[in-house]
Amino acid sequence: MKDKLFFTHMMLNRESNQRKSEKWIHKNHTDENTVFIPIWNGNYFFTSSNVSKKCLLELSNATDIFKSNFQVEGCLDDYAYFLGCDIENNNSATFVIDLSLFLPSLEKTIEILSSIIKENIESLDFRYSISLVSKEKASVLGYGRSLSHWHQSSQYCGFCGNKTTSKEGGHSRKCFNENCQKMIFPRTDPVVIMLVEYQQKGQAAKCLLAGHNRSPDNLLSVIAGFVDPGESLEQAVVREVYEEVGLSVEKIDYMASQPWPFPGSLMIGFRVKVKNNTIIIDDEELSSARWCTANEISAFAEWGEDGDDIQIPRKESIARYMIDDWIERNTL
Ligand SMILES: [Zn+2]
After folding, report:
1. Ligand 1 centroid vs 27 CA: distance in angstroms?
2. Does domain 2-153 bear CATH number 3.40.50?
3. Taking the CA of residue 214 as centre, how many other CA atoms within 13 Å lie in the half-sphere pointing to its CB?
4. CA–centroid distance, residue 97 to ligand 1 (Å)
5. pLDDT tens digits, residue range 233-277?
């Protein structure tokens, strides 16, 4: 079942010790097997000459391309972030290279990339890119999206306000200010996500699905929330369940986790039993909440379908994974 969980099929070895060496990173910049995946503010690029089969744009020899096509200061270190080495492909290094840091126009970026590879190029937001690639590649694109977003939002030191610079192949940044020199590291925001279930004696088990104020009216999903500073995951689960639907938690079982690159969360999924079934919703967060049996949920529509029928979350989400897992356990 866990094989179905999107963004968890990582085929790259992160080489977290090797990547600390600037020399090792630079050797990989010029290796002929190294792959550079261009990204522009969350958009990836696809060759579109063949309409039925769009291919993700990956560049080799980026050092040469960089020198001859882009008039920018600095070196690849400032824009290319090492993701890992491909275990199944000559152990070749993969970098994501963020062109938006020196090319402010997406149209201009497409024009330059098209002229480099002499093919038509189109850009696609990360959200839509993942449906055109394998699940292994989607995990890599998610990783690249999260890491490049962190760099975009960390160009200045949060302590003194000076510029920062990328280090360790893009896995840290250091403040330029001699008197500060703070190091910062990519952040991940933990989110607890809960499938809440309740079973009355002699009746079918029910799970709680809620409509969220920020989602389409007909979409029902599980509930979730960010972990507070100073809070354990278990405490966050108990607090969120009580705050959002007024239910008291009786038992918590860990299910699975999923990196969620929108832009940099880690979803941590729990199956939660509650002591009672009287729902009191927090109407600032939720528009509705209801108890559903497995049979009822199975009849709901797919995410994104036309019409007003109740829908369940998209297949890539851990929310959907948790709902499907629960249906499997509770279908009579
Ligand atoms: Zn600083």
Report:
1. 29
2. no
3. 4
4. 25
5. 999 999 999 999 999 999 999 999 999 999 999 999 999 999 999
CA of 158 to the centre of ligand 1 (A): 7
Ligand 1 centroid, distance to 149 Cα (angstroms): 20
Protein residues near ligand 1, an ion, with CB under 5 A: 157, 159-160, 162, 175, 177, 180, 182
Domain ranges of the chain: 2-153, 189-330
CATH number assigned to the domain with residue range 189-330, chosen from the 4 options 3.30.230.10, 3.40.190.10, 3.20.20.300, 3.90.79.10:
3.90.79.10
Q: Which residue, chain included where needed, has tokens 């690029």?
A: 45
pTM: 0.93
Distance (Å) from CA 172 to ligand 1 centroid: 13
Q: What is the 3-state secondary structure (H, E, C) of 205-269?
A: CEEEEEEECCCCCCEEECEEEECCCCCCHHHHHHHHHHHHHCCCEEEEEEEEEEEECCCCEEEEE
Model pLDDT for residues 134-189, shown as the tens digit of each residue: 999 999 999 999 999 999 999 999 999 999 999 999 999 999 999 999 999 999 99
H helices of the chain, in order, are: 22-30, 62-69, 106-117, 126-129, 135-152, 233-245, 294-298, 318-330
